[in-house]
Sequence to fold (112 residues):
Amino acid sequence: MHVLIQTRTIVVEKGNSEKVVERFSQESPVEGMDGLIDISILVKKRSKENEEVMVMIRWESEEAWKNWEKSDVHIQGHRQKKGNVTPEYIISSSVSMYETKKIKRGKAFNNQ
Fold:
């Protein structure tokens, strides 16, 4: 299985990570898409100056992700946000894509 992982890393001013967590925790149409495995929202521990939130979205395949990207609901969502001002507390945001080459399951996975 070649899982596709998309990460979105958002660096915010100290004290604002929960705003980002809350935003990405809300229900979204992506949750109903075929091929979506899960979404994890992570906050970097021990941030000194700024805080970092990573949203990790796992897809069964690149094709499943592409279907989301091309979907009407996804395109409409971007059109609705066009022109919105980025909140001042967001310092930077980046997106990366990863293709898994190997998944090794631990003991906890087998006990589920």
